[in-house]
Write a structure and sequence with these properties.
Elongation Factor Tu (Ef-tu), domain 3, mainly beta, globular, 299 residues, single chain
């Protein structure tokens, strides 16, 4: 059964027999890193409460109009375990950016992979402002994405699609099953995060630093810039070398960092027992089974 706030129910019940509320679609996109984008199909920005994050959230958010616009296919509501989906088309103006780069490039690099997308309908007495709340029309996870220069076509699959995942979740495998720094791993990210400043000669792909940790220590980790032209941007570390202090990042930054720009960085994990012991001293929480024989060796 669909849920609606008491304010929305009261608003609709209070309409006269011939009154027609103004209606707009509201779109909330929550990326895996927590970045939230809010858009509306209306011609004006809409100020509205939202059920996208929490049904108890009473904050009024701004849903933006006139920049990135969207259209969608029709959606249906069914009782049962049938997995529904929605096709969402985003029209991207040339100046619109996501994570500091044009939207098509960001999506092509995985910015919207497994993002949570919520489509809500807002009801208004006058354009632009609603305090009544919204009704959720569809909520799901991004699937296939088709990217062109000015449009992004997204498949959004209902959350019930998760039931198609293979169970049990924990498998017998050599690699650790935990996500680094999660509750199962038990390590605290802040304890391994260090700060530094950019050295001369850095490019959009290689950041020179004064870091002195061993070769490969920060690989698979994340570097986040805290000042300069790339402030707030994060990139994955695919190589770190002690001799030169060079940190190679993917995808490339939108602009080369300047000397003395500051950053924070923390190491990643390749899920092996050796890394768990030597880098993190965390064998007690290692969730792999490295001594399971491979199929070819079984007798």
């Amino acid at each position: 059964m669909k849920q609606a706030s008491a304010g929305l129910i009261s608003f609709l019940n209070g309409l006269g027999p011939t009154a027609q509320p103004l209606i707009a679609d509201l779109l909330t996109i929550v990326q895996q890193d927590g970045t939230i984008t809010r858009l509306t199909s209306a011609a004006l920005n809409v100020q509205s409460k939202s059920l996208a994050i929490s049904f108890s959230d009473s904050t009024v958010y701004t849903f933006l109009a006139g920049g990135v616009t969207f259209s969608r296919t029709r959606v249906s509501t069914k009782v049962g375990l049938e997995v529904g989906d929605m096709r969402l088309t985003l029209a991207i103006p040339p100046t619109a950016t996501l994570e500091g780069v044009p939207w098509p490039q960001a999506v092509d690099q995985g910015a919207l992979d497994a993002a949570v997308i919520t489509l809500e309908r807002a009801f208004m007495a006058t354009w632009g402002v609603t305090t009544a709340g919204t009704e959720i029309i569809f909520k799901g996870y991004t699937g296939e994405a088709k990217v062109s220069r000015s449009t992004i076509d997204l498949q959004v699959r209902a959350g019930i699609a998760i039931l198609a995942n293979q169970m049990p979740r924990r498998l017998w495998q050599p690699a650790c099953l935990h996500v680094l720094y999660d509750a199962g791993c038990a390590l605290v990210k802040a304890s391994f995060t260090v700060t530094g400043a950019v050295a001369a000669g850095s490019t959009v792909s290689v950041v020179h630093t004064g870091l002195t940790q061993a070769d490969h220590y920060f690989e698979l980790g994340v570097i986040t810039f805290t000042s300069g032209v790339n402030v707030g941007l994060s990139r994955r570390v695919y190589q770190s070398l002690n001799a030169s202090g060079a940190v190679s990042v993917v995808p490339p930054l939108p602009a080369a960092p300047a000397t003395s720009d500051t950053f924070s960085i923390y190491p990643g994990c390749d899920k092996t027992q050796q890394t768990c012991v030597n880098k993190f001293a965390n064998l007690a929480h290692f969730a792999g089974v490295p001594y399971v024989p491979v199929a070819e060796a079984a007798v």
